[in-house]
Cobalt/nickel transport system permease protein (Desulfosporosinus hippei DSM 8344), 269 residues
Amino acid sequence: MANIADSIYNMRLLDDLARQETLIHKLHPLVKLLTTVSYLTVVVSFGRYEVAGLLPLFFYPVMVLALAELPLKPILLRILLVSPFIIGIGILNPVFDQQTFELAGKEFSRGWVTFLSILLKSGLTVTAALLLIATTGMDRLAGALRILKVPRIFVLQLLLTYRYISVLMEEVARTLRAYSLRAPKQKGVHRSAWGSLAGQLLLRTFDRAQRIYEAMCLRGFAGEYHSGEINKISGWDWAYLGGWVAFFVLARMYNIPLLIGSLLTGVIR
């Protein structure tokens, strides 16, 4: 039960973080969305052997974390949740990519370089997406998508799916609590009850979703989800977007770590 309660709390934590009033939180949601999309585009555009070129892009999430005053631990925990999938995708690269390179007098497989590249790209993209939600919130993010003329049905589906996950978790918690009260000596759910509990859970979530929809209709819902008033884009918003896009383009066009190393050693390449 404690794990279920923790899961519900962790799901709502990003929404709670999005209600802060920091410099980053006050930015226009469309600007933050476009900045994140630009960042993701640049990150995935790097080749599989361009590991050093990715290093300057760590500056963006670090700055956003600092300016938004976000706790580091919840972000890292969510990145760790997807890390097994990332490792599973890239771990076979050293097997398939048998090309070698020499480093410090020893030969290494280029597959390890591509594996490291996958880890870095995945970590950066997941972090950027989490920071966008933690500094904007799903409601304001939906408003930004509507400004970009994303079809209403897709935006509504995204929002309701996001909200329905928490409803499902609450019903799971209630079902497990009722089961534990009726079988206090039973550790966990007995396998003979798995099927009936899953069916009951499905029916309860459908019924809960129907009640939520009826409540929305009583409050005037007619197919358009109103996320509240969104202010106009200010000059500071444009400066934020332009500054980061310029940095991303610069980091993509030039290998900044190599340039810094060349300047420090006096060797210009």
Notes: Residues 4-268 form one domain. Residues 35 and 241 are 6 Å apart (CA to CA).
